[in-house]
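Query protein
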Amino acid sequence: MFRVPDQATLSLCAVFVSLCFAATFLGLWRRNPAERFWLWWSASRFIYVVGVVGFNELPPPIPAPAGMLLFGASAAATLLTLAGLRSFAGMRPWRGWMTLLLLVPSLLYGAVAIHSPGLTTPAGALMTRMAGGIGLTIVLTTCGVVLLAGARGWARMIGMALIAHLPSYATVLTSAWMPGAQLDALATWLWMTQPVLMLAMDLLLLAMPGMMAMERLRQAASCDGLTGLYNRHWLATVEPARAATGVAVAMIDLDGFKGVNDRCGHAAGDRLLADFARHLRDWTDRHDGDAVRLGGDEFLILFAAGDDRLAASLQRHVAAAADGNPAWPRWSASIGIAPCPAGSTTLQGAMHAADEALYSVKKARRSGAACAA
């Protein structure tokens, strides 16, 4: 029958795995010193090992200063992981509030140790061990919530792994306060999740840079290099799904763009396209739409069909975009809109209808200018 490993065996496994990942992270940092997040994660795992070895090897009773250092090391391991994730995201790795959080377990342990001398357990006085454990629970919860609330993708999974530590911490603290055979057994079983969660976190950290690089490659394949909008490749990928749900298609063309290129140079034309693209993205971000650069000065917008007010809003927004740099020759934007019925298999019919509407607008504008002349 399967037997639960003792705490020493679990700790030995955790130490071995953490040392392997610490060395791996350190080696990756030495290969590319600019990627400093590897160094943060390596330091996190080395410090975690220090904490585990200290708690298991120091004979009880552990002096208060040593206990404060060990609980501080355990908190630092979690906070250094967070610092590495912040560095990976291009943010300042360490903030002042993280220093305050680092001190919480040590200060709680030290404060209780002063008022409860003499009580000994394998990790020091019972009350001091619980105080330090509560401090570590605060650190884990705070870091987990920060990642879940502010991070994206893989980093959010690290936050979930940190939060997943909490049931085992809570059970161990409860069993220390109210000893009992059933509660002690549950605490032991839940504590077995600690090495598994640490392994999962380390594997996620190891995979994150590669997965993010692949994601950037996918984005590069789907986005226009100049404007950052989606490109024709992306449109072809999503066309069947978008057509089936039914969307409105807006075709947009810049009038006078050639004059800007001819008189001000291609660099000015590129700035005009990039500025206009930002203008379109502002609208699509607010109205849950998608902006695509088809090529040259041609753009396409996908948005919810059947809303005349939304279509009118887009038309006003496109018209307002022409109020740009007064140093450029006069230019404007024409737009044509057509619906794509739900259940369609392609956007081509709607794009053709929107294109015809666009050129009707252009023709009417030229006729109006001719009449005015």
Observations:
- DSSP finds 14 helices and four strands in the chain.
- Residues 119-124, 369-373 have pLDDT under 50 and may be disordered.
